[in-house]
C-alpha cells in the first residue's frame, strides 16, 4: 500500500479515512461511488491487511533460495552483456542448467534489490488534523506465514489461530508526530507499552483524537495457544503509553467481519469471541448422508464461479463457530456490558449522536452455491445502553440475483445513518425485483425514517430513481446529492435534492456517460462534523451569499490528467478554478481538507488542503496549501524507493488503431538509453483489456505523463533494470457500440490494438521487431494467451499469470460478459484460448497460485490449458505457487516468479534469433491460415473488475495487480 494512498477517485476522502480497513457502511452497496457517500462515523481505521506485509527477511532465512548463476554484479555490465549475443547465450545456459532444479530461486540482484527495498510507512492524520501517524511496515512476508492452517468457508478464508481473515499483514510499530503550523513534523513519539514482536492491526483514532485503538497478536507459542488471537489495546496520544483495553486477558477480538467501532470519545463496541465457545466441531469420520442440492421448484438460479464455498453441514458448523461473535460495549476505564446474544455479526454502525446501534447479522439457511454476502441477513436497531428497539428487515437467501449487470438483491439495501442528522435512517428498495432486465419506472426508491418513529409513522420517500441507486452525499436539510447509474448504457446522473423541503423539486445536476472522462466535473469534498461524520463542505467566498461546494476532479484532458479544485455554485452551476495541478513537470492532486475542524461553513480565505506532488523522477510527497496566499508547506520527505532507476525515461504516447480508434500507452526506457546510439531493445508489453460503448470514450487519454512510476513487487517495470523497453498499459479497448456487445468482435479488436502498439514501438526504434514479449495478469493473462494464438506474428513469447483460459468453465458470465454460455456459445468458444491451443506456436510461461480464490480464475484453468498446450507440442512451462492466491504475497513466491519471468524473457526474447526476413511482417496476415484473426461474437462487467478509467487502474497494471477477474 502506498504511503497515504493517493486519492485518484473522483472524491477526496476524509483525511482520517485514507487507510480505511473497509468501505464505510454508506458505500458498501456501491463501491464505485464510495468516495461520494456519507462516511462512517468512526474515525480512521487502518487496515493492516492491505498494507505491505513483512519483512526484512534475510536470505539466510530462505535456505532453499539459490541465486541465478553467472549474473554480473554491475547493472551496466549486465546491460552490455544482454546486447552481446555470446554473453546472452551464457546467461541462458546457466538458466537452462538451473531450470530443472527443485526449490525456490532468486532473480538477478538488479531486480531483487528493488523488491527487497524497505517499504515506506503508511500515514494517517488525526481527526483534528494536528497529528500524524507513521505506521511501520515490513517488506514481503515469508512463505511460512501463508502456509498457516486456514479454513475456506462461505467465500472467505479464515485463520483459525487468530480467528480472523487469513493472511493478514501487520504493522510493526506506531510513531506519532505533531503537525506544526508550517507543515513540519514535531519530534517522534513512539507508541510503547506492548511486548516486543507484537503484530499490530486495525489502527483507529478515537473521535476526539486523544486515543488510538489497535489490535495486537503474536506468533503462536506452543506454551500459549491464545497468543495468536487478537487483543484490543488503546494508547494515550499525548504520552504514547499503550495498554490492553480489557482488564481480563481472556477477551479476544473476532475479526472475521467488523471487529470494533468507536461509539464516542471513550466507548467502543467490540466483536468478541464468545466466552462460552468450546473446541471447534470435529469432522465426522462417516458422513451422515449424501450431499444433495435440489431444484424441484424449477427456479432460475444463475451464479458466477464463486470459490471457497460451503460444501456440507460440517462446513456450516465451522462457519458458525468461527464467525459468531458476542458484542461487548466497553469504556476506556474497562467497564463492559454485553449487547444482545451471540450471532454472526457482519457489520456494526452507530448513529451520529451515539444513541443507537445498527447491527447487521447473517444466519441460516446457508448456501452451497453463493458466498456469505448473499446469505439471509437481518438488520436490527439497538440503543447503545443495550435496549433492543426493532427489526428493520430480515432478508432471505439471495441465490437468484440475476447475472445481468446492475441487478441487485430484493428488499431493503444500503441501510445507513444520515450523516447530517443525529439518528435518521435511510435505505433503498428496488422496484424491479432486482432484475436489471425488467423495465419499470421508478427502478429504485430511497426512503428515510427516524430511528424510533412515532406510532403508525411510515417511512418517507426521499427520492425516486429510474437508473440504479449509487449513493448519497449529505450536506444539510437543504442540500444532498443523489447518484444513479446504469452499466449497460454507461449513463450516470447526479440529482440535487432538498431533503426536508417538499416544495423544492429535485433537479439533475449532471447527466453524462461514465466513460467520458473529459466531461467529469469532479466530486464534492467532504468535511468532518462535530459528531465524527462527513458531509459535503459548504464554502463562503466572501463576495455573495451563494451556496458553494468544492469539486475535486481528475481533470482528464487529451494531454493527460490535470487535477483541479473548483469552487462550484450549486444554484447557478458556475465554476471558478481555485487550484490546478502543475502540468508542465509535476502531477499534483488534492487529497483532503485540512481546515474542517470548526463547525459551520468554511471560508475560502481560511481554506487549507493537503495535496500530493510527484514527477516522472520524484516520488510522491505531501504538502499543506493555505489560502488566501496559497502558500505551500512540505509535510513529508520520503527517499526515492528505487534510486537505481531514478533516471528511467517515461513518455505517454498516442497512436491509432486500424479502425481509427485512438490508443495510448506509457513507454518506459532504461536510464541512459539512447535509441540512435544503443539501437532497439528487447521489449515487454504488459496490459489488460477494457470494454467501452463508444470509440470516442475508448480513445480518451487517462493518467498523466508526469506521474511517478510506481514499481511493485511483480511489476513489469522491474525489467528496466535488465535493459528492456517496457510498454505499460497500452489501451486495448473492446468496443460494442449501440446494440452490439463488446465481445462480439473481441479477438479482432484485441489483435488490432496489439498490432498498433507493436508498430508504434518499432517505428520509434526502441523495440527490436523479433524481441517483443507480451504479458499480463488475470484478464491480462487471458489476453496474452489469445494474442499468442491469434497474432503469433507480433510476439516472440508470452508470460501469463493467474488467468482463465476456458470460458466454458465460467458459463454464467465472466469479466464484463453477462450473457450465459448458452446465449452466446460462439463467443465463449472463440474467445477461449484453450480452444485455440493448437494455434499457439510461440513460447508461453504460465504462472498460477495454487490457492487462487478469485472467481473464475481457478488454478484448474492453467492446469488444463497447459495440458492442452503440451498435447499439441507447444513450447510451454507451468509454474504453480504453493499457498498463493490470485495475487502473490510471499517473498519466496514473488522472487521465484521474477526468476521464472527473467529466465523466460532472456531465453525466448533477448536471445530470440529469428531471421527477420522469415518473420511475418507486423500488420500482415499470417501465412498459416489457422493463424488468421478470428472474429469473436460476444460481450459485458461487474462493478468489481479492475477495468476502469482512473490512474489507480493503470498503476494496477504496472504492479501486475488486477481486480476480481470474474466476481
Automatic annotation (TrEMBL):
Residues 755-908 form the Peptidase S9 prolyl oligopeptidase catalytic domain. Serine-type protease active in vitro against the LHCII N-terminal. Cleaves its substrate on the carboxy-side of Glu residues. GO terms for molecular function: serine-type endopeptidase activity. Pfam families: Peptidase_S9. Belongs to the peptidase S9D family. Its main location: plastid. This is Probable glutamyl endopeptidase, chloroplastic. It comes from Kalanchoe fedtschenkoi. It is found in: Plastid, Chloroplast stroma. PANTHER family: GLUTAMYL ENDOPEPTIDASE, CHLOROPLASTIC-RELATED (PTHR42776:SF28), SERINE PEPTIDASE S9 FAMILY MEMBER (PTHR42776). Keywords: Chloroplast, Hydrolase, Plastid, Protease, Serine protease, Transit peptide. The lineage of its organism: Eukaryota, Viridiplantae, Streptophyta, Embryophyta, Tracheophyta. The keyword DNA damage does not apply. One of its GO terms (cellular component) is chloroplast stroma. Gene3D superfamilies: alpha/beta hydrolase (3.40.50.1820). InterPro entries: AB_hydrolase_fold, Peptidase_S9_cat. One of its GO terms (biological process) is proteolysis. The keyword ATP-binding does not apply.
Amino acid at each position: 500500500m502506498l504511503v497515504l494512498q493517493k486519492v485518484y477517485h473522483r472524491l477526496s476522502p476524509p483525511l482520517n479515512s485514507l487507510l480505511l480497513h473497509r468501505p464505510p457502511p454508506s458505500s458498501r452497496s456501491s463501491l464505485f461511488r464510495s468516495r461520494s457517500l456519507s462516511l462512517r462515523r468512526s474515525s480512521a481505521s487502518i487496515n493492516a491487511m492491505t498494507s505491505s506485509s513483512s519483512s526484512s527477511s534475510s536470505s539466510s532465512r530462505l535456505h532453499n533460495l539459490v541465486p541465478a548463476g553467472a549474473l554480473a554484479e554491475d547493472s551496466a555490465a549486465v546491460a552490455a552483456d544482454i546486447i552481446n549475443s555470446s554473453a546472452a547465450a551464457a546467461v541462458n545456459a546457466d538458466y537452462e542448467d538451473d531450470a530443472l532444479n527443485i526449490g525456490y530461486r532468486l532473480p538477478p540482484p538488479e531486480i531483487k534489490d528493488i523488491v527487497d527495498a524497505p517499504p515506506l510507512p503508511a500515514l494517517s492524520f488525526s481527526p483534528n488534523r494536528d497529528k500524524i501517524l507513521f505506521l511501520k511496515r515490513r517488506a514481503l512476508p515469508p512463505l511460512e506465514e501463508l502456509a498457516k492452517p486456514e479454513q475456506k468457508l462461505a467465500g472467505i478464508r479464515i485463520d483459525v489461530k487468530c480467528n480472523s481473515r487469513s493472511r493478514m499483514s501487520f504493522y510493526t510499530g506506531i510513531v506519532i508526530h505533531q503537525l506544526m503550523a508550517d507543515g513540519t513534523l514535531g519530534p517522534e513519539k513512539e507508541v510503547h507499552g506492548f511486548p516486543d514482536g507484537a503484530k499490530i492491526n486495525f489502527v483507529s483514532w478515537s473521535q476526539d483524537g486523544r486515543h488510538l485503538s489497535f489490535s495486537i497478536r503474536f506468533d503462536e507459542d506452543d506454551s500459549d495457544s491464545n497468543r495468536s488471537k487478537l487483543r484490543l489495546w488503546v494508547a494515550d496520544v499525548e504520552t504514547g503509553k499503550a495498554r490492553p483495553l480489557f482488564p481480563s486477558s481472556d477477551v479476544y477480538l473476532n475479526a472475521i467481519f467488523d471487529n470494533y467501532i468507536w461509539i464516542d470519545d471513550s466507548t467502543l463496541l467490540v466483536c468478541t469471541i464468545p466466552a462460552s465457545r468450546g473446541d471447534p466441531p470435529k469432522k465426522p469420520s462417516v458422513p451422515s448422508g449424501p450431499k444433495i442440492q435440489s431444484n424441484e421448484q424449477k427456479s432460475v438460479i444463475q451464479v458466477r464461479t464463486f470459490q471457497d464455498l460451503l460444501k456440507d453441514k460440517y462446513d456450516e458448523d465451522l462457519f458458525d463457530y468461527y464467525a459468531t461473535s458476542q458484542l461487548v460495549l466497553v469504556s476506556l476505564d474497562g467497564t463492559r456490558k454485553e449487547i444482545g446474544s451471540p450471532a454472526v455479526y457482519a457489520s456494526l454502525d452507530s448513529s451520529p449522536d451515539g444513541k443507537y446501534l445498527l447491527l447487521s447479522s447473517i444466519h441460516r439457511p446457508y448456501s452451497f452455491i453463493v458466498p456469505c454476502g448473499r446469505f439471509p441477513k437481518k438488520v436490527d436497531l439497538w440503543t447503545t445502553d443495550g435496549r433492543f428497539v426493532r427489526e428493520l428487515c430480515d432478508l432471505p437467501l439471495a441465490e437468484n440475483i440475476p447475472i445481468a449487470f446492475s441487478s441487485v438483491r430484493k428488499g431493503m439495501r444500503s441501510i445507513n445513518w444520515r450523516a447530517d442528522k443525529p439518528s435518521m435512517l435511510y435505505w433503498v428498495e428496488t422496484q424491479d425485483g432486482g432484475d436489471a432486465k425488467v423495465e419499470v419506472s421508478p427502478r429504485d426508491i430511497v426512503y428515510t425514517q427516524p430511528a424510533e418513529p412515532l406510532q403508525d409513522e411510515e417511512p418517507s420517500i426521499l427520492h425516486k430513481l429510474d437508473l440504479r441507486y449509487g449513493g448519497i452525499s449529505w450536506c444539510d436539510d437543504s442540500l444532498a446529492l443523489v447518484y444513479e447509474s446504469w452499466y449497460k448504457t454507461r449513463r450516470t446522473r447526479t440529482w440535487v435534492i432538498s431533503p426536508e423541503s417538499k416544495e423544492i423539486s429535485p433537479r439533475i445536476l449532471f447527466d453524462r456517460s461514465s466513460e467520458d472522462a473529459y466531461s467529469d466535473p469532479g466530486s464534492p469534498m467532504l468535511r468532518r462534523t462535530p459528531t465524527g461524520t462527513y458531509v459535503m463542505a459548504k464554502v463562503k467566498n466572501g463576495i455573495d451569499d451563494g451556496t458553494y461546494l468544492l469539486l475535486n476532479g481528475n481533470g482528464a484532458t487529451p494531454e493527460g490528467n490535470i487535477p483541479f479544485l473548483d469552487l462550484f455554485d450549486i444554484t447557478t452551476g458556475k465554476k471558478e478554478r481555485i487550484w490546478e495541478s502543475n502540468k508542465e513537470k509535476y502531477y499534483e492532486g488534492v487529497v483532503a481538507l485540512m481546515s474542517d475542524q470548526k463547525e459551520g461553513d468554511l471560508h475560502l480565505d481560511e481554506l487549507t488542503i493537503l495535496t500530493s506532488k510527484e514527477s516522472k523522477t520524484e516520488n510522491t510527497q505531501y504538502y499543506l496549501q493555505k489560502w488566501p496566499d496559497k502558500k505551500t508547506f512540505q509535510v513529508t520527505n520520503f527517499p526515492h524507493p528505487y534510486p537505481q532507476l531514478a533516471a528511467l525515461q517515461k513518455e505517454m504516447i498516442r497512436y491509432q488503431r486500424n479502425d481509427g480508434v485512438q490508443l495510448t500507452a506509457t513507454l518506459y526506457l532504461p536510464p541512459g538509453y539512447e535509441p540512435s546510439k544503443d539501437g532497439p531493445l528487447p521489449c515487454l508489453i504488459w496490459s489488460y483489456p477494457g470494454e467501452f460503448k463508444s470509440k470516442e470514450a475508448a480513445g480518451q487519454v487517462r493518467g498523466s505523463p508526469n506521474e511517478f512510476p510506481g514499481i511493485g513487487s511483480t511489476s513489469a517495470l522491474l525489467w528496466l533494470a535488465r535493459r528492456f523497453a517496457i510498454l505499460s498499459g497500452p489501451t486495448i479497448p473492446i468496443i460494442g457500440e449501440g446494440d452490439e456487445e463488446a465481445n462480439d468482435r473481441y479477438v479482432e479488436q484485441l489483435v488490432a490494438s496489439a498490432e498498433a502498439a507493436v508498430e508504434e514501438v518499432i517505428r520509434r526504434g526502441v523495440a527490436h521487431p523479433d524481441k517483443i514479449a507480451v504479458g499480463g495478469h488475470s484478464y491480462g493473462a487471458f489476453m496474452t494467451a489469445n494474442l499468442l494464438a491469434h497474432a503469433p506474428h507480433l510476439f516472440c513469447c508470452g508470460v501469463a499469470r493467474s488467468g482463465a483460459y476456458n470460458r466454458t468453465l465460467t458459463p454464467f458470465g465472466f469479466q464484463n460478459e453477462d450473457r450465459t454460455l448458452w446465449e452466446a456459445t460462439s463467443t465463449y468458444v472463440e474467445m477461449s484460448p484453450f480452444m485455440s491451443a493448437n494455434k499457439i506456436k510461440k513460447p508461453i510461461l504460465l504462472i498460477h497460485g495454487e490457492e487462487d480464490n478469485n472467481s473464475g480464475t481457478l488454478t484448474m484453468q492453467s492446469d488444463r490449458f497447459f495440458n492442452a498446450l503440451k498435447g499439441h507440442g507447444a513450447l510451454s512451462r507451468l509454474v504453480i505457487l504453493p499457498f498463493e492466491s490470485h495475487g502473490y504475497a510471499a517473498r519466496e513466491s514473488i522472487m521465484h516468479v521474477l526468476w521464472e519471468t527473467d529466465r523466460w524473457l532472456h531465453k525466448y526474447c533477448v536471445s530470440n534469433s529469428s531471421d527477420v526476413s522469415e518473420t511475418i511482417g507486423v500488420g500482415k496476415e499470417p501465412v498459416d491460415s489457422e493463424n488468421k484473426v478470428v472474429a469473436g461474437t460476444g460481450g459485458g462487467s461487474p462493478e468489481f473488475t479492475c477495468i476502469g478509467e482512473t490512474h489507480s487502474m493503470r498503476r494496477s497494471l504496472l504492479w501486475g495487480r488486477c481486480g476480481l477477474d470474474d466476481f
